[in-house]
Amino acid sequence: MTNNYSKAEKATMYFIGVTTGKSSIMKVFPEWAKYLGIYAEIKGFDFMWHDDPARYMEAVNFIKNDPLSMGALVTTHKLDLLDACRNEFEGLGPYANELHEISSISKRGNELWGHAKDPITVGLSFEAIVKDGYWNGSGAEMLILGAGGSSLALVTYLIDRAKAGRDLPSKIIVNNRSEKRLNELKNHAAKMVAEAGIEGMNIEYNLCPTAADNDAAVAKLKEGSLVVNATGLGKDGPGSPLTDNVVFPEKGLVWEFNYRGDLVFLEQANAQKESKSLTVVDGWFYFIHGWTRVIAEVFHKDIPTEGPVFDELCKIAARAGAPAKKAG
Hints:
By secondary structure, the chain is an alpha/beta fold. The chain has helices spanning 25-36, 53-65, 78-85, 94-99, 118-129, 149-163, 179-196, 211-219, 264-271, 284-298, 308-321, and strands spanning 12-17, 41-46, 69-74, 91-92, 104-108, 111-115, 142-145, 172-176, 203-207, 226-229, 253-256, 279-281. The strands form two sheets. Strands 2-1-3-5-6-4 form a six-stranded mixed sheet, sandwiched between helices. A six-stranded parallel sheet has the order 9-8-7-10-11-12, sandwiched between helices.
């Protein structure tokens, strides 16, 4: 993959990802910009998973030094990019330091800033799916498949939720196929829980190298439990973290973080939607919350997270770039 780092001729926001040209944001952003009064364009920079640190440095240095390059949204590479480019940032937001990742690159005068917006955006999306009080007395659990940046953001949100005294799953289970990322998430979470002084938060971590291992974990979940695909499989890579033999919990919730790609995980859930009385949700609203929070940061603009303006942004996105929906 080769990216074109040519001087921007008008205000430009970038999308740093894997297959950015396939994202709905390329059609949605121009329409959002018109509605919000932002005079800018968007361009994508594609990288391989866990790419050469020098390539991340090249992109960040370009954005930093080009006057009309306003900032970027970062997906997939949130951890790796900050590892490679930490010294290029004059400022990091609180979650960026806490999670050692950034999903937003922006400028404050001559300073380059990085923020981790995902704990905020994943929380907004979670609360749209799971209403307050859902977990109280239910015994329902939550299984997060994957231990990358999105999973870390979700666990961080849940810890913040615990600090606020809000209801939680009876158990939070994190499965991942590589031990390194699993241990990184475990250590971060343990530190955050200890610093917050939270007692009795039940988080379990499992090394699950195969999809069959994940199937077994899903089969053990209690009625009403939530299963989350935070692996990137189905969008950034083909397939699903589960096999077609998986059995979802009765009256369960199934959340696919992706909204585009082959979405095999989503198809597996939808195949059992009626027989298991499942609620199946894809990543479309996560996409909207994620992008609007970063756009607000990059262009220093107040964008509501609910109400008439947010509702109109959802409608614009649906008209301009909504994919063929597979969600239930």
